[in-house]
Amino acid sequence: MRIRNLGILAHVDAGKTTVTERFLYLTGATHKRGEVHDGTTVTDFDPQERDRGITIFAAAVSCDWADHRINLIDTPGHVDFSDEVERSLRVLDGAVAVFDAVAGVEPQSESVWRQADRHGVPRLAFVNKLDRAGAELDGAVESIRTRLGTVPLPVQLPIGREDGFTGVVDLVRMRAYVWADGADAFADLPVPDELGAEARRRRRVLEETVAELHPGALEEFCAEGALSAGTLTGALRDLTLSGEAVVVLCGSAYRNRGIEPLLDAVVAYLPAPSDMPPVRGEVPADPEAPFTALAFKVNASATGRMTYLRVCAR
């Protein structure tokens, strides 16, 4: 229950590798932020990847957050390397789909979303690059609704626009998270007065949408006229696991804003191995069962071959 096996999926240049690097840094797995443009990232290890500034090979890394082990695969975003994504999806329990806040759903992000649909992989959505000119959360959310045919559930409200983007309002807890320039930690604050009415309106819309989709939430909503944070969190997790809806978060990975709440959402909403159905061949995720694994990647080098396995039982 304390393991999360997930992948990062997106169109090229949406910020997958930067999100991965921030995960590693904030969890203490690395002690320096890697940057794609500097060629210093952990997961873009091949010389071609560092020269071109794109991900070519799926790379697996691990880190720890909130007493959970997170096993993460950073996948390519370029259409030429879709097979790497396909192989990775076969061993993932969940995924974070990253979208550009200016472009919204792009062609390859739509393609990898359909691949994840075929493999039944539950997803979160992260709208990245909110600090860019022309960035708009609502526009990106609408493109998720119309182009991907799912129900997006935004659980955050941005604080500031474009270059003035400084943080987010958490609509579940009704708290504001603000990141100062250059700071490694965020400030947990009350919702700003100027955003109070909008935050309450969006929270109400979120509650109504969740109640329409989740019977347990509907029962509480009808009885109390609102949803508690605990009920809302549980319903969001159920809807994520069933694929009926997708939780949407936002931020700017490059400027280190919005990553901690995304890590919390990974733990709260994405499935553990025990939440998933048996893999093909009816092999349950049981440590006491006979050893079973799926090889999903082979790297050849001058010293030999390394095979990556997803262990299902041992």
From TrEMBL:
Record-linked InterPro entries: G_TR_CS, P-loop_NTPase, Small_GTP-bd, T_Tr_GTP-bd_dom, Transl_B-barrel_sf
Name of the molecule in the record: Translation elongation factor EF-G
Family annotation (NCBIfam families): small_GTP (TIGR00231)
Gene3D superfamilies: P-loop containing nucleotide triphosphate hydrolases (3.40.50.300)
Record key words, sorted: Elongation factor, GTP-binding, Nucleotide-binding, Protein biosynthesis
Presence of the UniProt keyword Lipoprotein in the record: no
GO MF annotation terms: GTP binding; GTPase activity; translation elongation factor activity
One GO term (biological process): ribosome disassembly
Residue ranges annotated for the Tr-type G domain, each copy included: 1-274
Originating organism: Streptomyces nymphaeiformis
The keyword Metal-binding belongs to this UniProt entry's keyword annotation: no
PANTHER family per the UniProt record, alphabetical: RIBOSOME-RELEASING FACTOR 2, MITOCHONDRIAL (PTHR43261:SF1), TRANSLATION ELONGATION FACTOR G-RELATED (PTHR43261)
